[in-house]
């Protein structure tokens, strides 16, 4: 096997591996198919074609595999699309291990295409895109080498280097062309039947369940995945927002976990009004990223109105209704990978909720205590408060005491019979849920109404908006203050409220999330609408220019863009002409092209490697009737091309006309002869 | 019979007159060795290009006759040296002879000091003698005992060797083969020519029929004209590409040298004169490619002699089909 052939096969196999990887990144293929393919690929790369001898017999193995997959599909263990993708991968594996003849090569490339299509159905993520490009480049190069190999006579070396250079240029152009095509023609979203994996690294939060349980597992405070992006107006303009973003509240504590009274309040609301707003509402345009992994809406404390929600799923984006649950929780009715919505919140200072408007069971719950509450809790609260009855002042006094006397720790203490007493009196250390629970219940023992709130704390400035990370998840206390409604009091030590993750990891993840979001917005979900938006952004008058005199001409931006586009086109044209590198054909070369085209009707065609000079000499040897007519033309061509005596103005036409006449006469004569011989042939 | 040659010698030749002169020479060669017109033309081409000629053939096909006929047709002084195993360099170069009367050494030139030297069966001489000859071919002069003696002009060597019988021979090294511009083999004549020979040969030796139709001066002029012909840049590039193709070819151990490239250019120029052209075309290059390069490329395969030449010729012809000619 020559080096060229080996290179071609390695490229082919690696391309096939890339195609398989484009499906595998979805994480949905069964593990055993991954193993089988990896084994086949490694064996093929080492040149071990195990199935070369028994191609048909080993094809029976595929039947067995198909049966296993079919059983999995019918039993519901495997999605049909996933099974089809896995099968395509195994066909490819079988072909990789077969003898490398042209038919097998074609089948490997074809199965590669199938796998890439499968990968598109299964994920379509950034990593998929990278594998897709790698597959296209490698298999194009491999196929081109195959074509060259077929053209080179047996036993001769394949001019790999000479081929790879123009091929590399060609592939670069093809990839660039594909990108240009992609930008010019928006992607059509079609409904794929296959399930899409949660993109990227998967959800990062435990989500919002209907309960908060003390002890056991909780949200990890150092997870730096970004779960939410929001742009606020009016823009606070600070780097660290330090605000509370509430998800839901809880009012019943049974000694172990927090729950709510009541169920679904309102179903299918396009716009959810939780409480009346005032003049100075804060508007938020919020995007919940795939890492969020829950359906609960998040908004700055205290949310007033939520709406305009869009769920982005595998089949594109669509509007979704909201529902209101107990605890002031708003949920998307339909599940998506990520969400976008708008929210209005009251400025901090109190929710404005009137106690009397709350449902009666919630009113009761705000003072309820678990049956088996440790009596020391009430005693300690009374001791710390020392007669303070004003709710807010009491809450702050207790919070200060908690922060002073208790340490913050992320280490879970495991399941305890009474986690609250354990936190307050034994361990004297815990995380935000312990602090918030302790404060809430201590207030209640003193007859002050309070509840637990969960959500996020913080807000880190990125570009024009703020992001929240999974580690920003937090719990705090709402204290009911007459005339003001619920007021936030946080018992957790301030240093431990926002995310605690490492800076470097946060940066790296931020970069990944930004790339992922860019890919999602400008590749996967890129649509005709986005194109129109880009075009509109160019011609729309700049912000703040409404007051200046309006002009009918497009703004300077449009002119600039047109200029840049023109320059890019010009540069591309220059590059293409330079890369093509061919000087304009010599006048004599164009002449000889015309001569040769003229000779075709007389069935005079150059042989392989034959020039017009050779053809002329051959005709002269054969005493061909056209030799006489061709000789002066050939002579003149040679003079013009190699003798430094260029063709004069109109000389080429003159010579060609003369030759044309001779050729026409010759063809006519031949036709007459053929006709003359025809009847005789029939008669005989 | 020297008349037309003198007339020609007076006026500077044009491509058309050069063709006539060369055709005359070739016609005389054809009288001596019948039925070998193509080879006769190549012999004339080699002479006009200023190169040396290697004739490889079995004995008895007219190699020696052809060389003698060339000398006679062009009016060149001629010497024939039969190369044998005991031939020493002094036997061909000449020697210093002591004159008793004047008590001095005097140089007595050897047979090499002729305008046309036939080195018969060159490969039978020991390498020392071979290299003495080949050095003289390359330099155009002989250095002996510290003094340099110029060889006459034009100076052409026609060497012959038997490509089949290698017993008792010293095969020419490839570096030496490279010094011959063209290599030819005559091959057996066609049956009708052989029959005609039988009928006529008895009457007169073939060389008697050859007349002097040219002169050393005319040959020198033709050489000058040939060297001045236009070789277009694209054609030069074509020659270089052909050379590169031989160097990169998988079956060729060593491709054409730079000397081979120059020789091909010179031979192609003279080839253009046959068409009375004052410029070289790719067709001219291809016409002389095989006689010019077949003996210069070293093949990877182990074949020797005639078979090696045939295979080389085959490879070169294949290259002319593969390497695109300028259009």
Automatic annotation (TrEMBL), chain B:
GO terms for molecular function: ATP binding; ATP hydrolysis activity. Coiled coil: none annotated. This is AAA family ATPase. It comes from Myxococcus llanfairpwllgwyngyllgogerychwyrndrobwllllantysiliogogogochensis. Residues 49-192 form the AAA+ ATPase domain. It comes from the Bacteria. Pfam families: AAA_3 (PF07726), AAA_lid_2 (PF17863).
């Amino acid at each position: 096997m020559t080096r060229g052939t080996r290179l071609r096969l390695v490229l082919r196999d690696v391309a096939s591996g890339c195609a398989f990887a484009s499906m595998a990144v979805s994480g949905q293929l069964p593990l055993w198919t991954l193993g089988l393919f990896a084994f086949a690929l490694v064996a093929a790369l080492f040149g071990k074609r195990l199935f070369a001898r028994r191609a048909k017999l080993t094809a029976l193995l595929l039947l067995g595999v198909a049966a296993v997959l079919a059983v999995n599909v019918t039993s519901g263990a495997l999605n049909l699309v996933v099974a089809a993708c896995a099968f395509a991968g195994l066909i490819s594996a079988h072909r990789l291990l077969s003898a490398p003849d042209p038919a097998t090569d074609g089948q490997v490339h074809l199965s590669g295409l199938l796998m890439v299509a499968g990968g598109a159905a299964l994920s379509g993520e950034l990593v998929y895109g990278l594998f897709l490009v790698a597959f296209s480049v490698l298999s194009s190069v491999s196929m081109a080498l195959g074509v060259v190999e077929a053209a080179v006579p047996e036993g001769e070396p394949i001019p790999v280097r000479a081929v790879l250079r123009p091929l590399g240029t060609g592939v670069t152009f093809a990839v660039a062309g594909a990108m240009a095509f992609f930008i010019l023609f928006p992607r059509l979203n079609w409904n794929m039947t296959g399930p899409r994996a949660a993109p990227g690294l998967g959800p990062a939060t435990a989500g919002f369940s209907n309960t908060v349980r003390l002890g056991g597992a909780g949200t990890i405070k150092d997870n730096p995945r970004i779960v939410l992006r929001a742009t606020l107006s009016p823009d606070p303009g600070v780097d660290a927002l330090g605000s509370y973003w509430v998800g839901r509240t809880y009012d019943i504590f049974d000694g172990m976990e927090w729950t709510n009274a009541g169920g679904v309040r309102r179903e299918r609301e396009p716009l959810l009004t939780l409480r009346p707003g005032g003049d100075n509402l804060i508007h938020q345009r919020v995007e919940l990223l795939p890492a969020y992994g829950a359906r609960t809406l998040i908004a700055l404390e205290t949310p007033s109105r939520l709406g305009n929600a869009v769920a982005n799923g595998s089949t594109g984006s669509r509007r979704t209704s909201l529902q209101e649950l107990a605890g002031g929780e708003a949920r998307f009715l339909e599940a998506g990978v990520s969400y976008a919505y708008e929210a209005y919140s009251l400025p901090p200072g109190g929710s404005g909720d009137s106690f009397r408007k709350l449902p009666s069971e919630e009113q009761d719950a705000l003072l309820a205590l678990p049956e088996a509450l440790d009596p020391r809790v009430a005693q300690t609260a009374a001791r710390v408060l020392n007669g303070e009855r004003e709710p807010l002042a009491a809450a702050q006094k207790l919070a200060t005491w908690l922060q002073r006397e208790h340490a913050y720790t992320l280490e879970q203490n495991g399941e305890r019979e009474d986690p609250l007493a354990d936190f307050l009196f034994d361990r004297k250390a815990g995380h935000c849920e312990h602090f918030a629970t302790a404060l809430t219940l201590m207030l209640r023992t003193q007859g002050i109404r309070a509840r637990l709130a969960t959500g996020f704390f913080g807000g880190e400035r990125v570009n024009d908006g703020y992001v929240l990370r999974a580690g920003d998840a937090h719990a705090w206390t709402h204290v009911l203050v007459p005339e003001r409604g619920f007021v936030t009091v946080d018992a957790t030590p301030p240093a431990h409220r926002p995310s605690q993750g490492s800076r470097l990891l946060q940066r790296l993840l931020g970069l990944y999330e930004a790339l992922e979001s860019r890919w999602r917005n400008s590749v996967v979900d890129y649509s005709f609408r986005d194109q129109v938006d880009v075009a509109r952004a160019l011609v729309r008058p700049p912000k703040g220019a409404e007051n200046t005199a309006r002009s009918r001409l497009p703004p300077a931006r449009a002119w600039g863009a047109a200029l840049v586009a023109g320059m890019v086109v010009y540069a591309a044209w220059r590059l293409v002409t330079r890369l093509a590198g061919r000087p304009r054909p010599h006048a004599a070369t164009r002449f000889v092209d015309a001569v040769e085209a003229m000779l075709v009707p007389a069935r005079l065609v150059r042989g392989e490697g034959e020039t017009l000079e050779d053809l002329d000499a051959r005709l002269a040897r054969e005493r061909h009737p056209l030799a006489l007519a061709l000789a002066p033309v050939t002579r003149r061509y040679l003079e013009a091309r190699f003798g430094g005596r260029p063709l004069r103005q109109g000389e080429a036409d003159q010579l060609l006309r003369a030759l044309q006449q001779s050729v026409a006469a010759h063809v006519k004569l031949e036709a007459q002869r053929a006709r003359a011989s025809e009847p005789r042939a029939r008669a005989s | 019979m020297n008349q037309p040659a003198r007339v020609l010698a007076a006026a500077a030749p044009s491509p058309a007159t050069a063709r006539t002169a060369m055709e005359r020479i070739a016609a005389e060669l054809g009288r001596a060795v019948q039925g070998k017109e193509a080879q006769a033309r190549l012999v004339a081409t080699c002479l006009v290009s200023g190169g040396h000629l290697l004739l490889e053939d079995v004995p008895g096909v007219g190699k020696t006759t052809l060389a003698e006929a060339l000398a006679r047709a062009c009016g060149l002084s001629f010497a024939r040296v039969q190369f044998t195993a005991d031939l020493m360099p002094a036997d061909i170069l000449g020697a210093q002879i002591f004159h008793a009367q004047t008590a001095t050494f005097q140089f007595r030139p050897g047979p090499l000091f002729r305008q046309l030297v036939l080195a018969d069966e060159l490969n039978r001489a020991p390498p020392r003698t071979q290299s003495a000859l080949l050095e003289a071919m390359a330099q155009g002069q002989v250095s002996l005992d510290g003094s340099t003696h110029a060889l006459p002009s034009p100076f052409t060597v026609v060497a012959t060797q038997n490509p089949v019988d290698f017993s008792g021979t010293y095969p020419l090294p490839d570096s030496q083969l490279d010094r011959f511009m063209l290599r030819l083999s005559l091959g057996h004549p066609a049956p009708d020519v052989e029959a005609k020979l039988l009928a006529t040969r008895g009457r007169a030796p073939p060389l008697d029929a050859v007349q002097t139709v040219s002169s050393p001066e005319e040959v020198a002029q033709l050489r000058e004209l040939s060297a001045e012909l236009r070789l277009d840049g694209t054609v030069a590039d074509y020659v270089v590409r052909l050379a590169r193709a031989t160097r990169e070819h998988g079956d060729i151990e060593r491709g054409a040298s730079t000397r081979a490239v120059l020789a091909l250019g010179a031979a192609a120029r003279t080839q253009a004169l046959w068409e009375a052209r004052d410029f070289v075309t790719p067709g001219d290059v291809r016409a002389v490619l095989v006689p010019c390069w077949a003996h210069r490329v070293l093949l990877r395969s182990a074949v020797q002699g005639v078979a090696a030449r045939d295979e080389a010729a085959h490879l070169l012809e294949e290259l002319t089909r593969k390497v695109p000619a300028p259009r």
